[in-house]
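User: Round two. Same drill as before: sequence, then structure, for each protein.

Assistant: Same drill it is. First protein:
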Amino acid sequence: MKRILTLTIITALCLLMVAGCKKKDDESSTIGSVTDKPINITHWYWADNPDYSAKMQDIVKNFNDSNNMNIKVTAQEYPWEGGGYSETLFTAAMGGGGPDTAAWKLTSTPLFKANNLLAALDSYIDKWDDKDDIESNLYDVMRTAGGSDSIYVMPWNTQVLYVYYRPSMFKAANVSVPKTYEEFLEACRKLTRDTNGDGKIDVYGFGMRGAKGGQEPWGSFIYGRGGDLSDFTTPQAVAGMQDFINLFKNGYVPPTAPTDGFNEIIANFKSGKTAMTIHHIGSSGDMVKTFGDDVDAFVFPAGVKQWTSMGDTENVVFQKCDNKDAAFQWVAYLATGKGQEEWCKTTGNVPVSKRVQAMKEFQDNKFMKVSIQGSPYAGIFPILDTTTEWINTIWPNTVAAALAGQKTAAQAMQDLQKGLRG
């Protein structure tokens, strides 16, 4: 009888142990299976207009309805307010509040990272099935923004600078679309013409932006000669600066170039005063409205190196988030899932997903196609404590002096290096 009782107790204990092990395995399983209790994720974002706002809410609903992990995202909209969004986000996060995930600008990364507010995403990306659906160059840009070997920012969508041009003007001047940096410089010369025979130039080859914001297209000239953004004083970088100066000195750009900003370069191009200028897909609608088929674009061509500037809107996961696995599933959906498709179709921004880039809707848009072609070469300026002043004041003032002949290319580049790097 004692033996039977002992066997019964042992059997019961074994059953309890099996049940206990099964419960433990269930509890420790990674995100990917349905749970009874919803996993709530709060997401902050901004929207430039009501259509974008409505689209984000649609994307959230679709994600909530379609994911099989019982993740429930709540998206809360905050105004951009000229960058005030980032300040609101920082204040909330420093106070222990704020969202689990948020829409993002790369320029905010150093401040948030320095205060240990962002979750590193490397381990999630490394085991992510869609990792290679995003250009490796973009991951490098994310690392650069954080100033380390880790990735704290998840790619979402971009805007890539390219060269707008007038096909009719190219045909009249017998100029082909430049395929090299040297050919681009030569096209600037050939496209600068007196078209009515009055002895005065009335079409300039290139619409140069010498005022604030002009550092972005200028960067392509520095790379064209083999320089980069780490040291403006190298012989290669100085040579790129000299090319920039020569365009103005030789009269291949409008005489107002030192003070021309965005509005001026676009107005000059649309009025027929310039044959080429540099901007991104955000201007394409107005260009087509003005010119119909007589406007096209090409990637700023390669010289010794190739580079173009990239605008960005990304996403981050906060360190305080209680379920980073679920949060990553959400930002991944925005990066390469249905959310990527829907957002980029609505906003007209450039997808980061190669799969989405290859879709007919994007390939049939010639400006989108050129943007995608330039994406592997796109980057950002260093995000330093000095960057804002450098962009707003130091770069335009220094370049204006160089274009006026008050500084040599080498002197200007020394001043630019000191202003940015100290």
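Second protein:
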Amino acid sequence: MKKAALISVVILGGLIPAAHLHRWQGLPEALAWLAPLALVPMRRDFVRRACQALMLAGVLVTVNSMMFFIKMRMAMGVPWTRLAVILSVAAMVPALAAWALEHPYFVERRGAKTVPGQGDRPARKAKNEDGSADSSARPASSEPQGVLPGNRSSLLEPLQIAPPALARDATIPALAAWALTLCALGAVQLKVPTPMLLAERFLPGAGWLEASLLALYAGFVVQAMLEHGRSSAVRRRIWGLFSFVFFAQLTLGLAGFERFLMTGALHLPVPALIAAGPLFRGEGLFMLILFVSTVLLLGPGWCSHLCYIGAWDSAMSCVKKRPGPLPAWVRRGRAALAVLVLGGAWLMGRMGVPGVWAAGLAAAFGLAGVGVMLFASRRAGVMTHCTGWCPMGLAAGIFGKLSPWRLHIREGCTSCGACSMACRYDALRPEDLAARRPGVSCSLCGDCLERCPRGEMSLTVFGRGGPGARAAFVTLAVSLHALFLGVARL
């Protein structure tokens, strides 16, 4: 009975503000408000907190409606006291619902206890070689693991240091990603006169529903990426999803469904044209400004999270189980190639080369890049296109130094090479490990962080590291990913 009452209060607390939104705005806006409430049965803490924030905002929505109707009745000279009492009580229901969500019935159920230093992996009982439980296993003592009694400098110690654990409680990062995504897409919905969100182009007001769903999606992705051992796989999947959505919208738009395209002139989906296009035309800086702004926020993480074509190179490189070494000339040659491409674009623009010819050269460069993925990346197991062919990868690596994010390699690194086996960007060669800093091709993808057996690698922001820095980076990266996903053909 008590649970039924709690559920009823929560439902009413969501429905009352939604009803007012439906009155003033429309059905899509009301559904956008109710979307988080529909996920409460999943018992995710960030969803519960998001619902509480919406419930408190719902109090203001209801009070705003009450004040409107009171003013209207006063202007008409009719009684308004009864209405004020009814709507005051109605405004209290969302606040009561926010309080009800604190009940243990709605709280996320935690999994098994974890072993300190082992991330989210549950503790396991010791077993004999035949698989039976080891009755001789001793209880935990105060003696550090890997240290023999009476000898604290045991040679076993380096082998027993566990990899660094990621954030165990991802509620705050997930909630932050939800809020950041919702605010960013809400700003796009409110401030940009042209419908930017795809749903808004088909149904007025539906952009709010899309924004609400993408914000929830961002929260779930952050939680998944902060689970031990899942970050790399999740990143590649959502990266592939963004690339699919981007090119699916482009394909549908070119096929005649114009609502899938944005206004303005189309450009070839070749990353090099982000910089080469403005250099050739002498105008059209929007994409370049967007790229630089993103790099300042996320550093070279643009290449591993937000590039619409990089996911292809990642898929091709992962065909080979382990990355192999690239020739040393690749690092030197990419700078020369970038100067040739960007300098050539500027020179052709000043020489008055027809746009059709320039577009043909750009298309040939893009197709050649796809060939690099299909042949070089597949064979080497390294993202050869991103690390040796694409000028924007080099630009992201250089301008990314202006961002506060760094991959830090501590002095305790033994150059064992475990991280190199996880790096598809050819950024952790032996000379890089010896210098205690990754190569310029490092994209802060984070694939190496869990591979270090000694925990000597970490992501830092303004010089501070730890699980909090990694959680903040993932939150920002996923929020930008969800924003880009919402405006994929911007």
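The chain has two domains: 1-107, 215-486.

User: Perfect.
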